[in-house]
Design goal:
The chain is α/β, with parallel strands linked by helices and 256 residues long. The chain has 10 helices and 9 strands. The structure holds nicotinamide-adenine-dinucleotide (NAD). This is Redox-sensing transcriptional repressor Rex.
Length: 256
């Protein structure tokens, strides 16, 4: 049972301490734990059991304990996890101890919504630039930031290194925007455009596509309907559940 406070590299601010190489699915769940922990802290909870945290984050507790063990966090028997300490540990591992600069490219319908989203700031991200190719949009002010032309990107990136570039342009423009971001030194991209981006090694791309999420839910709807449509007693040679579709619930299948 242990829960260690994360340690930095003492006296050497420029050196990033070694981090555990975590499974991608664990990394994807850490923000869920963090959101749940912040909520628990706001409600005045100092400690939480693995079951309580798992329920708040919407995962099973065995998976949560395994995830947190990767961080060297095992909680205290009979007490659970120290909420403030676990927040600190997860924020450290996710690199949220510094506010990362974000440039948003494409300030149309989606871009406007993202630019106005307060959740970025409250979770440690600063939108430092709004960029668009449309001269008519340049000069518009959103949330105190003025939209600038995409051609200004190299100058903006030289003034302040951009940690993450967000692409909210049409798919047809996304690859050239990604190339411009990479040329400006950006090594992490969040792509909302429905296309696959090609980037050099060392550049991380995450894709958000709500239509894909709907299609996955559609699959589960389809599956549920097919199960209820099955005869009560399957005929000879017929499986009672379609092969390969047994097991976990819908949320599990999407989340892992
Ligand atoms: N991921 C999702 O869940 C989701 C949801 C909605 C929309 N989208 C996608 O997000 C993108 C934006 O959608 P929208 O409705 O906001 O479109 P939009 O047409 O309203 O906005 C796109 C903006 O990108 C700008 N743009 C075009 N080419 C550019 C370039 N080379 N450099 C910089 N800016 C450029 C345009 O001037 C415009 O302002 C689309 O690819 C759309 O399919 C994704």
């Amino acid at each position: 049972m242990s829960q260690h406070r994360p340690t930095g590299a003492p006296g050497r601010a420029s050196v990033v301490p070694a981090l555990p190489d975590l499974p991608e699915a664990t990394v994807a769940r850490l923000p869920e734990y963090l959101r749940a922990l912040h909520h628990l802290a706001e409600q005045g909870n100092d400690t939480v059991s693995s079951e309580g945290l798992a329920a708040a984050a919407g995962v099973n507790s065995a998976k949560l304990r395994k995830d947190l063990s990767h961080l060297g966090s095992y909680g205290t028997r009979g007490v659970g996890y120290d909420v403030a300490l676990l927040i600190e540990q997860i924020e450290f591992v996710l690199g949220l101890t510094q506010r990362r600069a974000v440039a948003l490219v494409g300030v149309g319908n989606l871009g406007h919504a993202l630019a106005g989203y307060a959740g970025f700031a409250s979770r440690g991200f600063r939108i430092v630039a709004l960029l668009d190719a449309d001269r008519e949009r340049v000069g518009e002010e959103i949330n105190g930031l003025v939209v600038r032309h995409i051609d200004d990107l190299p100058r903006i990136a030289a003034e302040e290194p951009i940690a993450i570039g967000v692409i909210a342009t049409p798919a047809t423009a996304a690859q050239s925007v990604a190339d411009q971001l990479v040329a400006a030194g950006v090594t992490s991209i969040l792509n909302f455009a429905p296309c696959v981006l090609s980037v050099p090694e060392g550049v991380d791309v995450r894709k958000v596509d709500l239509a894909i999420e709907l299609q996955i839910l559609s699959f589960h709807e389809h599956r549920k309907a097919s199960l209820t449509a099955l005869p009560a007693t399957p005929g000879p040679g017929l499986p009672s559940v379609p092969i390969g579709l047994t097991g976990t619930g819908a949320q599990e299948a999407v989340a892992t």
